[in-house]
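Q: My labmate handed me this sequence with no annotations at all. I'd like to see what the chain might look like in three dimensions before we decide whether it's worth expressing. Could you predict it?
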Amino acid sequence: MIRDDLPECGVRFTINLLPGMIFRRYPIEVAPPDGLLGFLTNDHWKSPGVYRDGQWLTQSGKPFKQVPTHWTAMERELGPE
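A: Here is what I predict for the chain of 81 residues:
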């Protein structure tokens, strides 16, 4: 499965513990599609979040107390298309 709704400017990477998955990492200034589930990070923190109505929210729908610098989303799974 390939996502076609992610911006093209992100940095692609893989994680050895998750073979077959490709991720993209973006600076926080790049807006993702509404409803995206992703991981937010800064130098000392990381957390899952959802992008809704122009802002990143916790899984329970509250704004984050931390200030993220990047977000990451799964782009695709390797294998048959």
